[in-house]
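G.,

No rush on this.
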Amino acid sequence: MIRIVRTSTYDALHTDRAAHDRTRLDLDRARSDLTAHRAHAGEARRLTEEAAQQLVRQATAERDEARAERDALRAELDAARAQVLLDAEDRVALRMLLRSVRKQAAPPERVYALFHHGALRSLHRSAEAAERAAEAEGAPRGAWTEVPPGASCPPACEVVWRVQPLAVQDLPAG
């Protein structure tokens, strides 16, 4: 069957066909642009994830470095505290030594005379030192007694070993 088509209709069909072709070209361009944008978005996402991972690695490294520095500073602080304690102990020991030296350097206020059967054997800075000297010469250990203040002492010849305190006086310069 043959159909008679008018020229205006035919021209309209050609115009529609051209519009259709342009629309198809625009659609193909839009599809290729969409594909390119998707590829670009995928690349951008990948780069963003890599950058985020890099930032996480960098932050982790900085955190680990800060922790190591903190631990080193704590160790240094502990060492400094220990040194301060040692310094304080050293000062205490030095004060004790200084007191001891001052006591030894100062002239004694009293000396302790060690007598054996009334005869002077030696002089000592302390009663304990005199007792040790007597024990070294044969006196019995622990047999020492004290005479109460104000009581009279037995005669020196009746006592085998005696420690007697004697006051030391400064001699006048002469």
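When you get to it, here's the other one too:
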Amino acid sequence: MFCEFGFRDGAMKVAYFTPSSFRTVNAGALRNVGLARALVLAGHEITIICSDHVRDEMSNEWDAILDGSKISVVQGGSPRGEGSHVFARLVRLLNGPSSDLRSRLSSISPDSLILYNAAPIPLLRLDHFARRHKLPFSLDITEWLNLADLPGGRFGPLAILHELTMRTLAWRRGRYLAISNTMAGKLGKRGLPPLVVPPIFDISPSDLVRRRDRRTHLVATGTDLRDHGKDVGGLSLIVAALAEVDPEGNRFHLDVVGAHSGQTEAYLCARLKAGAFTLHGRLSWEKTLSAVHSADFSVVLRNPADRRSNLGFPSKVPESLLLGTPILGNLFSDLSEHLEDGINAVVVSEPTKQALVSALLRLPVEIDREAVRKQALVRYTPRAWSATVSEFVMGEL
């Protein structure tokens, strides 16, 4: 039986529902863990209910990431069956965690609910539950998807449902955590103003010795460097610019980290000599962070006209800055408020080859990496956001 939950003295219990999968380390799951860490630091008990089924194995990388965090992650999804990848993705986007919601919440007895992004079915169910039991209910909104990227295309049923859900969020009575001011501007036209929380992480530089071979080392990371992935445009730009400035790799070296297609590999090989770049493929998160830490600059290039990029916030920016690695990239979303040319970045005036060539010709630029990290520690860590996020999620702000 559920009681009319009143706040208890001491720790509160928060149930955080997410369509993210913990079978891999990915930006969505890391966002969930970052916010959960902030709430744990405020003294609360956090349970993350993800969309994986109990038969799905969590990546063993999470053992180190979650070690000592006091964050509980449980699987709440339906069996994946033998369906296609597209169908599995469709189920996650629509349904999120789909086990017996009432039973799951009964076992937790939460004082507050959070839903990561706006999966339509759990949005309706959790909103109903929160109203019935008079609980604070927050939505953590990090992306507004491009309709063409969804299964079925821009005129498919999923695209229509996603657009309707996002456009009607402002009419409901919930509270919103937004990943950027641009996203907050879209959500806050009606109702309560959202709380803007950028990606937050608890990461530290390793003790590795950075390379010193007189070249400027650049790293381009991405969870999807395949043919039409969101990072391919930026990768093609940096490769084209390097091909004009230094195709032999005498001044620059580019490390490319992330899943990629044969088409991507052929593109690099046709424009740069073998010694000018290294294709690493998909690496563990720990090894990815090591690659970023050992680089002189992390490349972040996106098209500001792309809705998903402009309303979101690239997690690789705070990841890099927390490691003391400055950014080489253009300004989109909120990045004008986070990146300062010559301080923690070399800012590219626009995402074009010529603008990037001009930026590359300015390198090397001496940037105080320790100062970069110290500034990032007060902006992008769970500890920096703990009190504010706690007050908001518990309905006190």
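Residues 135 and 209 are 50 Å apart (CA to CA). Residues 216-377 form a domain with the Rossmann fold fold (CATH 3.40.50.2000).

Enjoy the weekend,
O.
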